[in-house]
Amino acid sequence: MIDVVLCVPSCEGPIRKALEVTGVTPAVASSGRLAEVSALEPAGGFAGAVINAAGFPFTEAMNLCRQLRHRTTSVGPIILLVDHYQLDDLTFREDLFDDFVVGPFDVSELATRLRHRLRRAGNESVAARVEHGDLAMNLETYQATIAGRVMDLTYMEYELLRFLATNPQRVFTRETLLSRVWGYEYYGGARTVDVHVRRLRAKLGEEHAHLIQTVRSVGYRFGVPEREDGD
Amino acid sequence: MIDVVLCVPSCEGPIRKALEVTGVTPAVASSGRLAEVSALEPAGGFAGAVINAAGFPFTEAMNLCRQLRHRTTSVGPIILLVDHYQLDDLTFREDLFDDFVVGPFDVSELATRLRHRLRRAGNESVAARVEHGDLAMNLETYQATIAGRVMDLTYMEYELLRFLATNPQRVFTRETLLSRVWGYEYYGGARTVDVHVRRLRAKLGEEHAHLIQTVRSVGYRFGVPEREDGD
DNA sequence: GCGCGAGTTTCACACGGGGTTAACACAACG
DNA sequence: CGTTGTGTTAACCCCGTGTGAAACTCGCGC
Hints:
The structure is a homodimer. By secondary structure, chain A is an alpha/beta fold.
């Protein structure tokens, strides 16, 4: 079986060479849109993805990563190509990709990383479940239960809850949530987040509504206040 | 809790800097022998390991990786530092390490990879924290605890305490606090600061209220009174 | 010791802004 | 066309915050 690796937005120079050395065939999606990606997809799914975030709007690249991760058919490891100045942007987005390479891109490093991740992908099983207290989310079936009761969440509600629940205790501003969950830069309605939080709280039910806490003048946080014994 | 990262065979220059930036403390095992490593190990095990295979016999480095992986107590992610010419040697050894960096080593890339792997390994505590005695503040969760008890601080209270706690022992005038914490030039009611200090003291509780001291006709200071013998 | 004044603590209250909520507009989908 | 999901708008409400004044404390001089 031939392994096909998705390349966005192009596959030239060192990238192409690295893929050749590794022995996988590229599938180039120049736009990076999900429709284009799906059209290119082979029967067994992609073996991996190489996304060049340098010379590509960064949030769009992140958005694509997110979409790839959320598809039903798995897409192997995602490797991000970034410029040095973009390193800081990677912080707290660790869940969106598996590895990265800093430009200028070296063929052998690229190839080594590709091989490394492809090999490891075979052994590791991705966490398909998120559990936190009474909340359980199955990422494969897209179902969420609270204290055993199935919640009927919409897509956005599910995504928001998943993001919050996978980063418990951390506070996120509305802007951050918009860019991380919705996937675009903020323009205007921060109330959007509020409303979705409200709907989530309603579906969580009276007794679990407090799982999403408001941190006034900051944002929202998932989880119960920690009792951390200092020392 | 403080995260300790094993460093072999040394921790200098960019490596030390990267560990500092990430907020973990190094434990240096110069020989790389298992006995030495075990002696350095903290109670909770290592949070991760950085092994410099450049300037180190390569097979020895691989041996150490293998030994670390086979121990009973887990040793977080293993990051290998290699020279460019060693890249080929990594092939078929993917299971022995989690990530690698190619020299010359860049601080921010190193730090980013370290954080990336630590976070993926489920390590929550690579967060910005302020700790001082019984007080602990987590800047990500916006939570503050005093002697293990969670304090329910409002936004302004949190900001004020954070500023004071990050500059312990120093005395600040009300004017300084207003301009540094509130962020605007002030003229009028300096009582604002007093009141917030009072509210903070109340939430700190009887026995910790003295953490914020009044310096009459000057301002306020955070920390325990210094035992000044001579002065 | 007593009284006085400057400085600090404490209290109560009013205002403003951030958060919640409901209702609506609109797009997607069958 | 109805249904369902999503984003926006606007009214409402409440909590956090700042302020002034009263009570209190400390330091100093008489």
